[in-house]
Amino acid sequence: MSENNNWHLAATTSEVLVDEPKAVKIGEHHVAIYNVDGAYYATDDICTHEFASLCEGFIDGDIIECPLHAGQFHIPTGKAMSPPVTEDLRTFKVKVEGDEIYVEVTT
What we know:
Low-confidence stretches: none
Structural class: mainly beta
Strand content: 35-45%
Helix content: under 10%
Radius of gyration: 13 Å
Mean pLDDT: 94
Strand order of the largest sheet: 2-3-4-9
């Protein structure tokens, strides 16, 4: 693994199933890890509209829908896709080594 101290072991591939994101806390950051057709992504887990865990939301393809007010975000880019959300999600770099998923989070 890289010597960059910003990479954190967040999950294993067996813990992040398609349509079942995994919530993890890395330092002070609440992070959602997604498996979209075998590709892994990470975003903030907290909706930018109101405090709700996106990991409790509904996934349709590469879109996550917030469970509170049904705002939608594009998982790979974090882009806000539908009202009431207007602010994009923060995204994080992800790398997979063997069956371990690492997320780059700067503190």
